[in-house]
Amino acid sequence: MPEQRRDDDGAERPSVTEGTVEQVIRAQLAKALGGKRGMAEAAVPTVLFTVSYLLLRDRPGVPSLGVLENPALEWAIGLGLVAAGALAVLRLAQRGSPQFVFNSLVGIAIASVFASVSGEAEAAFLPGIIYNSIYAVVLVISILVRWPAVGMIIAGITGDLSSWRANPHVLRLCSRLTWLLVIPCVIRVAIQAPLYAAAGASDAAFAALGTSKIVLGWPLQVAGFAAMVWLLSRNRTPMGDTTGSGDLGAQIR
Questions:
Q1: d(C-alpha 82, C-alpha 43), whole Å
Q2: How many whole angstroms separate alpha carbon 248 and alpha carbon 239?
Q3: By the 8 A CB rule, do 213 and 192 touch?
Q4: Angstrom distance (rounded) from CA 24 to CA 44
């Protein structure tokens, strides 16, 4: 059981200790590992978009849908949106959780807007590159100002919003865990940005960009969570009381 603390109203809430950090990360990993269908649902629209555009971009006589100047891009966007929508309807019909397919639907819709406005198919991958760049910067800033994002996320769950920072062990652990969230974002940008720059003139680069979108998505996220659990397992050592840390001076289970 995690350490408990009392609010001003007398209610007990779990304090943020290494134990509660481990519990939350393990729960997130289990959730990700249970999302094999979600991985497929997220991948299908991207695969259809990438493959259909590559097959149609240089083919003469592709019928236009009357929306964009580029018929191949029209069909690629249309197939991606239809696939995401069909998967969402199927999920709802089966009364399953629509989380993964809904995320995919929103993602393909945003990507479609970028591609439609620019008239370039590779622009569909630009939102992800921008998102990961900003996300990485925000995470790094949270570490530098000593309010690491992982600590804030777990504090929001437990209701212990600030006292966890008085415990140097928990603060250091949450900072390290936040770095493990930064790394996947940096990997995605480092790989996808050059491919994006080359995709307009190279079918191979465009295909690699689409493939990287899938490979560096769910699988890399699961790897990141697994690394966090591994790090937590290495930090299960006794911790003595820390002045001013209150309930957070507990020992790791």
A1: 14
A2: 10
A3: yes
A4: 29
Whether the CB-CB separation of 71 and 63 falls below 8 Å is answered with yes
DSSP 60-83: TTPPP-SSSS-HHHHHHHHHHHHH
- The pTM for the full model equals 0.75
- Rounded Cα gap, residues 241 and 5, in angstroms: 15
Report the distance separating Cα 118 and Cα 124, nearest Å: 9
The structural domains of the chain, with segments of one domain joined by +, span 1-34+121-245, 35-119
Burial 96-119 (b: 16+ CB within 10 A, else e): eebebbbebbebbeebbebbbeee
pLDDT in tens, 145-171: 999 998 888 777 767 777 778 888 888
Q: Which residues pair with 6 in a beta bridge?
A: 12
pLDDT value at residue 250: 36
DSSP the chain: ---EEE-TTS-EEE---HHHHHHHHHHHHHHHHT-HHHHHHHHHHHHHHHHHHHHHTT-TTPPP-SSSS-HHHHHHHHHHHHHHHHHHHHHHHTT---HHHHHHHHHHHHHHHHHHHH--GGGGGHHHHHHHHHHHHHHHHHHHTT--HHHHHHHHHHT--SGGGG-HHHHHHHHHHHHHHHHHHHHHHHHHHHHHHHHTT-HHHHHHHHHHHHHTTHHHHHHHHHHHHHHHHHT-------TT-GGGGPPP-
Report how far residue 7's alpha carbon sits from residue 251's, in angstroms, rounded to the nearest whole number. Answer: 21
